[in-house]
């Protein structure tokens, strides 16, 4: 299925533009008309992180006339392994500003719009309305569903990508011509089931593989060339080095883009929709959450405690709390960890940031360890408040 171009051509290209884009202009399918469409195009990239970095760089170089970037975060040293739009001297700087500076350096002929703010249900409709197409480089389900809903409600196409370890996926969601993200994933995954890249890691170069697919699809949609990735899901396996595409059908029962939609405006709270932690875990941690300072004082006072790290072995290797015993979360979920727990000590669970340990705490309390607690904020809060000399990841 080919689609008509999303954007009308600009009136003309300047001499500088002709010189700069000559390798595009001599491709018959792109040509003058295609490049003028790119010049007239307004594209927003949500997130200047792993996917946003290559996406913004190549969209800028390609001559997309108006390029928006929205990100509220600041550049951290642990970003530089994959977020190649930022450099060492950008650490601590807002990502949106850092990305905009790189974009201007690559192509001073385009306009960059910096949105140094959180994308929220309050601003998403206004911001999206100013663009022809959205490139989604977000890394969490709450924002992803919000991006999808806003794009569908506004009738805008968006190019989605997702990365984890060695695996990547990409698709184009455009309810007018095919399925939306909710057709593919009607429900967010249960909290704690799908680890984020911060928890599970990501091969840096995977971002380039998926980000470049996203730019490729954006250019095709803007100029109306080729077969867009509408109604298809591209699945990339970097270890096997395979690309597969599978058909994704529009779900006639989709609550958002189906025949009888029940979601006709943005949800009030996408965080709640995706649930940071499960109800059981929320119940378990209430009144049973300690701070890193408390844990430290218990250790110093020689309290009878048993500290368990529920992260994965490779995370434990990077940094761990002194004296903590490693029992990964999976062993709590399958029950095998329970027999290893001492009956005569107070159990203290921790993970990286407190989500996984909350899930484990629910299991442990159900098994009768009613005085067990978990460390709010995980090893990250320990590093922040007790021992800032330790590495973070
Ligand atoms: Zn749908």
TrEMBL record:
It comes from Planomonospora venezuelensis. Keywords: ATP-binding, Membrane, Multifunctional enzyme, Nucleotide-binding, Nucleotidyltransferase, Transferase, Transmembrane, Transmembrane helix. In the N-terminal section; belongs to the HesA/MoeB/ThiF family. GO terms for cellular component: cytosol; membrane. Gene3D superfamilies: NAD(P)-binding Rossmann-like Domain, Rhodanese-like domain. The keyword Transmembrane applies. It is found in: Membrane. This is Probable adenylyltransferase/sulfurtransferase MoeZ. Its main location: membrane.
